[in-house]
Amino acid sequence: MQVVPTMRKRSWNAGGKLFATILAVAGVTVACLYAGVNPTTTGFAYLITVLFIATGWGLQKAIVASLAGVLCYNFFFLPPVGTFTIVDPQNWVALAAFLVTAIVASHLSASAKRQAMDSLRRQLELERLYSLGRSLLLDSGDQRVPVRLARRVAEAFELRAVALYDLSAGQTHLAGAEDLTIPADILNKVLTGEMKNDESSDCRYAVIRLGTKPAGVLGIRGVVSDTAVDAISSLVAIGLERARSQEIENLAKAARQSQELKSTLLDAIAHEFKTPLTSIKAATTTVLADDQFTGQNRELLSIVNEETDRLDNLVSDAIQMSRIEGGKFKLHRSLIAPNEVINTVVAQMRARLEDRPVEMNVGRDLRGVSIDRDLIQLSLRQLVDNALKHAPGHSSIGIGADRAGTEVVFWVSDDGPGISAAEAERVFERFYRGQVNRHAVPGSGVGLAVVREIARAHGGDATVTSEPGKGARFVIRLPLAKEEIE
Amino acid sequence: MSSAKVLVVDDEPQIRRVMKTTLTGQGYEVHEARSGEEALDAVREQRFDLILLDANMPGIGGLDACRAIRATSEAAIVMLTVRSGEEDKVAALDAGADDYVTKPFSMPELLARIRASLRRIPISSDSALIQAGDLEINPAARTVKVDGREVRLTPKEFDLLHFLATNPNVTIAHTRLLQAVWGPDYGNEVEYLRTFINQVRKKIENDPAHPKHVITEPWVGYKFQP
After folding, report:
1. pLDDT at A17
2. Domains along chain B?
3. Which residue among B15, B86, B106 places its CB closest to the CB of A285?
4. A342: how many CB neighbours lie within 10 A of its CB?
5. Is the entire prediction scored with pTM above 0.90?
């Protein structure tokens, strides 16, 4: 352990203290000579001086003082006075006793002082760690947390320099008066545990760990114990962890809010579209109801009418999808015959399907099931739309429903290029577009995500089975209610 | 050609324009209002046979306007709205609307709804007064009294109650009831019946939660018990 008294002001340098020590011994000598006290009293006076010096300035100075004291004692007080020789063997014993006492007492006093300093220093470090921990826990938490962490560590421990390397961001945050850049090779050595102290740059390092994973490196230049360095790095780890989880939460919140905003916006826009559509539809159907329009005019008006319906369906689907994406939708289940659902979807898609062969296939013993009719029809329209976009011109499209165990399944199949196994799960992700033809096929990548969301709201799921080159089959599985199963 | 008086309430001028043109062409006398507030003023000043009410308007919305109109007027009300959710339909009917059309609609469909809403079951002048306990139904005057106190029913509510009461103790299926009161184009709108029967019960039953006269036959229909 590196021991450094940090409390005392360094107003005296080592040379000054040495000089003061000599001066003190000389002073005692002069005083005793002048007062003409006997050698025993003088010996005690030297001893007291040595003890004071040991208490104040440590063992080193005390030993210097004892040696100086012995010399002066011998020279000035022990007969023959004025020489370094001692005649009386009794005085040898006295001198030796003085020297041993001075040194032992100095040693005891210095180590007591050292221990007092030590515990004082520990107490101070603890107080600093406590205030550091407190300030970290009270931190509001944002992207600038690592910067503040470094600064707080530097301030709390009065360090010359602090460097906090954030592993995930790859950034180093500096604080303190001096500049401390951690070279890359040292960083690696620290992270692998090869290095803790770097004597050449007077630095100590600690790895910051979240759990067992390293999250960064803390570099410190300044006066602080190893224990404190470990404790600081733990506190910094907690601070980083807190900042990170806060950041994740904020991101999720922002994503949620932007999703909601988008849905609300789309909803509002879609409603705006409905008004002119209403006028067009009302006007067109009024004219169409009049029998005087025949032939070409009637055909052209019919196109306007049908396209109005198509636009209306697109807008309605956009409203529905934005609600489902925004997560604010409720199921309105009612008892519906699956073949009715399939027939409606095919009828709604008739204009888009043109003369493509459509194979409808509904299980014969399939009775009514309790589902949200509008949402399941929306899902099937999305799947048919998807098939129309990906399957070649005149290939057939299959659509059907059947019972499978405790579930009712709806499916849409096509003879398109199919989907690779790797993409089979990803196509249901929001905004994911197929690798092969993402630029050739129009779309937003939302449709299949919505289909899955609707299926899951029913307690089921949407999946796809496909062999590349042999088409794809999208399946919506919905669990039947208990009474529907028997 | 009918000459019923129709009030078109919509904040969108183009929609009022196309409605006015078409409905006038069909022989209706068309008046316009640009908001729920204007509609309430118009209803206070004159009597309308039918009100076409947009559900989404600034100011007091369609539903509140519907409730306010229903409190003072027996005109048939058809709500026009862009929403088509089940709960929106029920909300419109609960507010007192007789029918509900989703925008955009085809004109023949709207005209059919208008005819159905204006439709009254023809009642021969000699049809007798129906007396059923505390209830008295007078077909000639189209009035209903409970314990001698007159209660106000909308025309559709009256037709519904009258039709049930002329076939006492017989369960009448949903489809038949709908077609009799609303017309042959109807048959699947069970939620209409549920809402209208509730309204009738509130007006004629002492304890609407435990009705004595209008009885529900689950999954089948309704029955009148004298």
Report:
1. 82
2. 5-118 (3.40.50.2300), 130-224 (1.10.10.10)
3. B106
4. 22
5. no
